[in-house]
Design a protein that fits this description.
The protein has about 325 residues and is α/β, with parallel strands linked by helices. Among the domains are: about 70 residues, 2-Layer Sandwich (Dna Ligase, domain 1), CATH 3.30.1490; about 140 residues, ATPase, nucleotide binding domain (Nucleotidyltransferase, domain 5, 2-Layer Sandwich). It has eleven helices and 13 strands. The strands form four sheets. Strands 10-9-8-11-12 form a five-stranded mixed sheet, with helices on both faces. Strands 1-2-13 form a three-stranded mixed sheet, with no helix packed on it. A three-stranded antiparallel sheet has the order 4-6-5. Strand 9 and strand 10 form a beta hairpin. Helix 4 packs across helix 11. About 35% of the residues are buried.
Length: about 325
């Protein structure tokens, strides 16, 4: 996806989407080849000539944590972030890369009970991101093999929030959550009013749900796809599909529910709305099922309802039909190089 920004906001000037065939077994070379082929196919069909790429990471090789430091200069914050990463990262020491960003800086006055004058104390709040060397190197190689240059490496959950914050305001005293349900991972991002991002990648998503649906009903995954995404399919009634989906999504919904309840308890904040996007988001009955299980209002989120598309652009039909599946791509494309 390629965006430009003018005085009225972002405009999509090119978009494309390609399925990545699932490789059998654990042959990473085949999987990498399929991903590179999909990237090249997208570039060709969208007529994108730029060689610069922004990519997103997610999964068990990524750790995102918020931090709050007081009275530290930039050099001290660098050291504090490294120390904190050493404590929270489950990776081998010296085998991961750490970066951070200050989100808010504020000043508060503190005083000792024995002192008459209060002193200023600078508070720095931000997030740190850590990724294994392996995933960073692998991603750079993929981009290079697709004849592109990786100039920015982001995190999918942060890209989602980046896109949403361009469009929506968080009501005071509340938080919002975004669920991007893809094929292999569900990216969950939560943000409260004047707060810091909370990110969790859940290793359970569309492929798992489709495979369970297929196995429990003696169907092929292709037929399940037709049942869930083809509006003209009549293999299952709406009630039958809802009942089966309720069972197949139980694990994912439990993970999401527990995570949101943990967040609300930690932050003492109510989640007012949950936005759902991703390639699996338009499955029949999914939004109604999620809303019945989670403690907030739920809606399908298509960011392109509020992002203009250039007339006659490549991929206009893809945006119209699959906009909800491209939210991460939009957030990545909004990054400034």
């Amino acid at each position: 996806m390629q965006l430009r920004k003018d005085e009225t906001g972002y405009v999509v000037i090119a978009a494309s989407r390609a399925e990545i065939p699932q490789s059998e077994g654990t042959n990473s070379d085949v999987g990498n080849f399929n991903m590179v082929a999909a990237i090249r196919k997208c570039l060709k069909s969208a007529h994108i000539r730029s060689k610069y790429a922004v990519t997103g990471l997610c999964g068990p090789d990524i750790v995102i944590r918020s931090f709050s430091y007081s009275s530290l200069n930039k050099e001290d914050i660098n050291q504090a972030v490294i120390k904190e990463a050493e404590q929270v990262c489950p990776f081998e020491i010296n085998q991961y890369i750490v970066d951070y960003q200050i989100i808010y800086e504020s000043t508060q006055f503190v005083s000792d009970e024995h002192e008459q004058d209060a002193e200023e104390e600078k508070i720095s709040l931000g997030i740190l991101a850590a990724a294994t060397d392996e995933i960073v190197v692998q991603t750079r190689h993929l981009i290079k093999d697709a004849a592109l240059r990786c100039v920015y490496m982001d995190v999918n959950g942060l890209a989602l929030l980046n896109c949403l914050m361009q469009q929506e305001r968080i009501p005071a005293g509340q938080a919002i959550a975004i669920l991007d349900i893809g094929s292999s991972f569900t990216n969950l991002a939560v943000m409260r009013h004047n707060g810091l991002p909370f990110i969790r990648d859940i290793p359970h998503a569309g492929n798992d749900i489709i495979n369970r649906f297929a196995n429990e009903n003696n169907l092929s995954p292709d037929l399940v796809n037709d049942i869930l995404f083809n509006p003209n399919d009549t293999n299952q009634s709406s009630q039958e599909t809802y009942t089966i989906m309720h069972n197949c999504c139980a694990r994912l919904l439990t993970e999401i529910s527990q995570t949101l309840r943990y967040y609300m308890a930690q932050e003492s904040t109510r989640i007012g709305r949950i936005y759902v996007c991703g390639g699996f988001a338009q499955a029949k009955g999914l939004i109604e099922l999620i809303e019945s299980q989670l403690p907030a209002q739920v809606q399908l989120w298509n960011p392109f309802v509020k992002i203009r598309c250039q007339a006659g652009m490549p991929g206009l039909e893809i945006i119209k039909n699959n906009g909800a599946a491209l939210a991460v791509a939009a957030g990545l494309a909004m990054r400034t190089i």
